[in-house]
Amino acid sequence: MTPWLIALRAILHREALRFTGQRGRFVAALVRPLVWLVVFAAGFRAALGLSITPPYQTYITYETYILPGLLGMICLFNGMQSSLSLVYDREMGSMRLLLTAPLPRWWLLLCKLLAGTLVSVLQCLVFLGIAAVWGVRFPVMGVLAVLPALLLTGLMLGALGLMLSSIIRQLENFAGVMNFVIFPMFFLSSALYPLWKMREGSPVLATLCGLNPFTHAVELIRFSLHLQPALPALGWVLLATLAFGAAALRGYDPARGMQGKTLKGG
Amino acid sequence: MRLLLAALMTSAALPAMAGEIWVTNEKDDTVSVIDVETLEVVKTYPTGERPRGITFSKDFSRVYICASDSNTVQVMDPNTGEILHDLPSGEDPEQFVLAPDDRHLYIANEDDAVTTVVDTQSRTVVAQINVGIEPEGMAVSPDGKVAITTSETTNMAHWIDTSTQSLFANTLVDARPRHAEFTADGAALWVSSEIGGTITVFETKGQTETGKVRFAIPGVNQDLIQPVGFRFSPDGTRAFVALGPANHVAVVNTATYEVEKYILVGRRVWHMEYSPDKTRLFTTNGVSGDVTVIDVASLEPVKSIKVGRFPWGAAMRP
Question: CA separation (Å) from B160 to A196, B121, B209, B211?
């Protein structure tokens, strides 16, 4: 086995250990979208059923509409949590050890990203199963078709998390990330409401939603789940993944990185 | 697992089938012709004012259209869309039914409180029968011996003996009866009541009430649940009931009168029609101006097709 694969296996193994050791985290990650699906969607049941937007071909329930958004939510929270755990790793020293491995830094970071993303995808699959039992309809083949979209979304959000982790010194800053990154990203997207509806309320907010890479990730998941192509969304997500990945790499480059100029304190 | 299978079935490619669904557009004064295979509108023909009821002759060589505001029933050649001639229909014809003899049309004249019987061959009025105020729903028994008119304001189903063209019974139903249908064996009559929010079931033989179907959709105000048009499934075990502004079609078990499922369709669903092979049901959604296609086996909506403004009636041509 080449050193590259050894590193990949080791990082995946570490993530798997962390994953099996924290079953509570796995369950908790599912509870959040479940509350939205079961409680929030029940309250807003009548909010849709007024228009038909692609990829849907007929009227749908609100539960059906928000399912892709909730899958995105799982990837968002998980990606952030996984990447920001690097802040903790850095504090504990294991991160420094990892980065001293005689391998390119981008490969180590990519391995870390992949490991976190695989956990997200697994959680998404479990959530899809629960949603199907709850009565949300989607094509069975969509479960396969959505896998690459989930993987790409996980990588994009993980890369964003990595980028943020490179400029955050202490884990206590996670609350700030929640308020300034996760919530705006989630609410300024098409996860909970279609953009045409947002446009009726505020064209400015609708434009911001259109620029939000998370919107495109959600649409990519939505179209894939319903077995339809979404090339513009795919392009946006790929571009954002590359941009966040490059910024993260730069952030973790000791010569040029942002670590020297990091934000201090909580 | 059953749900997953149902989801799979709805996503499956649509099987090749021939046929057309003709839909009257109340506000556009047109009929839209939907291709059953491609699920797209392939033709639109102009009609008289406010077309509502629509039905084909047995050999599908003629299509009869109630042009309510033109006070006539139009006879159209379905191959060309040309109006061949009008039939004397009485004032404001809304719904009608073609008798099993393929010759006599029983027409509800909403403004005149009469049911007009028209001979489509001689193009003459055979009889006019006084019924309750604002007659609307029309049905004829499979043997052709009994015709039914429901009157919206009198809240009754009027039973007409077709041999004498006279009433022989009147039965009370809940408020604003809109539509009536006999079961395939003719043993029972179902009448939907829009304001009452129910369907009343009668035994044809003695005209006695034998059951009541009630509806309740979680999260939908009871006032909005207004049953109008309905159709029985080919095997007679289910009835599909359009619930008007509740935007759902109810699937009713005809043995227990219990609702098995509510299917989400467009806004203000009026009437419905089967594809020729009876595997799909097409519902006309008045306010949203579209037709929702329901897969009969999985009871799932497959697609909604934009038609004209305020689609109302629907009829099938193979």
Answer: 53, 22, 17, 22
